[in-house]
Amino acid sequence: MKHTVSRTPLPRVLRRRDARLCLAAVLVSGFGTSALWLVAGVWVKDLTGSDGLAALCLLALWAPTAAGPVLGALADTVRRGPLLIGLHLLPAALLPVLTAVDSPGRVWLVFAVLFVYGAVGVVQDAAESAFVAGAVPASLLGEFNGLRMTVSEGLKLVAPPAGAVLYGAYGADAVVLLDAASFVLAAGLYACLRVPERSPARGERERVRIAEGARHLWRHPRLRPLVLAGGATMLCAGVNGAVLYAVIDALGHAPAYAGVLYAVQGAGSVVAGLLAGPALRRLGAHRLAGYGITVTAVAAGLRAVPSDAVALLCSAAIGAGLPCVLIAAFTAVQRETPDALLGRTAATAHTLVLAPNAVGLAVGAALVEVVDVAVLLAVLGVVWAASAALMRQSAASPSRTADRSSSDANPA
Fold this sequence. Notes:
Elements: H1 2-6, H2 9-15, H3 17-48, H4 51-62, H5 68-72, H6 80-94, H7 107-135, H8 141-170, H9 172-191, H10 202-206, H11 212-219, H12 223-242, H13 244-251, H14 258-283, H15 285-302, H16 308-336, H17 342-354, H18 356-367, H19 373-394, H20 397-402, H21 406-409
Helix pairs in contact: 3-4, 3-7, 3-8, 3-9, 4-7, 6-7, 6-9, 7-17, 8-9, 8-14, 8-16, 11-17, 12-15, 12-16, 12-17, 12-18, 12-19, 14-15, 14-16, 15-16, 15-19, 16-17
């Protein structure tokens, strides 16, 4: 029995030294990042008294995502291991600049640092996706990405409150320095990795074309529907997020009830991250994405029911469904993209999938003012389900077979 359990996929991922170090780096740097993004808005609000300026903190972090295809090209021009080390040391050196912010007149420094922080994060994501594809066998990428999602979502449950407590006790400087230290530690963990990498030849660096990643995604029969459905899903997720407070009003609760719904949604995402890897091996990327979208679409529609129990159940279902789509899409990109293109392709995929979320937030914020929330949620559920139909149509048996490597059938 002991021998059988040791051969299951999840322990195989955790037993790999490189995978453990990568996950540890994600854990420590992600803790600092999650703490800072909340505290930055609170800090700016305290300094200026402006809700709009506080909201701009999140925009400054997200805005560089639109330049993903351009920024991601950097990950295809140099060795990714040293690049990841440098990309973690850069914000560690930059963040202490924020300790000089002590008045409304210096708030611009917060936005400038957060914008650079966000741009570095885009390159980090591209380099990490490409690096992990070389450090982890293709048959275990789904499990790794599922664990990474679990770590990221788990951090969102604990790091923001911890950052808020630290901010209340010692001020913003303490959170800033904590985040800087987390990047230094993550850089040290990446420095301990021993993943063989070849340096791109000079001719390859000169021939890097930014649009090649987008062309690869568009021409690939399995990646195109996954990325398009992922983008449509995140667009709808943005609309869904924008109506949250209208849902809370319909339930008769104070706005602070959003914290409860977010926590339940995060718990659903943690569970989904643990289960998504084995599900990906069994179902294939298209079916997993299709089921995830279907669950999320149904849950979004049911949020129109004015019931606390239904609202909590729907939040958990949305938290479980969304990661399935993201893990399926990004794992497929890692598996089906040549190494020389992987940085640009991963960054382009992240932009196409995640950037629509900001558009959805804007659209939802406008619609919720003029459309009854129950009607809006019902229409949203139907539209969302349409992308699940796209996945069902593209989930032919060849795509499922392609998602399973020979090592899946013969585990080591």
